[in-house]
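Most newcomers find our protein records easier to grasp once they have seen one. A learned vocabulary of local backbone shapes supplies the integers on the structure line. Here is such a record, shown just as it appears in the course material:
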Amino acid sequence: MCFTKSNTKSAEENEKRFKASFIAPEIYQSYYARSGYSTDYLYIIKQNENEIINPAYWGLLPENITIDKRQEYLSQYRTYNARVDKILNNQNRAINFIKSQPCIILADGIFEPHYKSDISYPHYIKHHDHGLFALAGVYTELDDGLYTTTIITREANPYFTEIHNKKKQGTFRMPLILNQEDESNWLSNDLNTSDITELLNSFTSKKFVDYPVRKSSGHPINNTEGIQPFFYPEQQSLF
């Protein structure tokens, strides 16, 4: 499960890291915590437009829906994430877009809940150098020209299992974070089924650090304080 993420970097840092330019740099805003409920944009790079960064709404919508129906659709279908196992078993509509509409979603951190006595404590997860990375996703383009996207998730490795220690639909989940050298492969229009399956079961080899952060009304906080370590007294025996 991946429902809240950060991109605290400037437009220039994003452009340098991904060798791409914002299509509308004037609307870009960095953020410390953005969830699927937000009406603000994520930022994506699409297949066949590897040098352009586009804004996109979080939550995959059908192409024939207008953005004013977004909340109604997402409250019913919750297409913020797409599970690898369901994609491979043709049980998720994201499979329709894997070959023709893949994208990468730009981020420099994600939040995952850690549970103790059924109380969740958000943990912030980032690379050691707090560098930018790419989440694998797919996108749709609506009739009104806006983009929507979903983050692909896969079965968690031991590191993410220890953090997000509550199963989702029977398994522990983590977002599919690509190795940097696989980012261009994910966006390639020459992938066959075997290539796609291999990428869907991949994960970055770069190391992460994590720590608990302050929450407000149970959720991460969208300011600089929200990504600073905050240790809860009742959480000291977690690890």
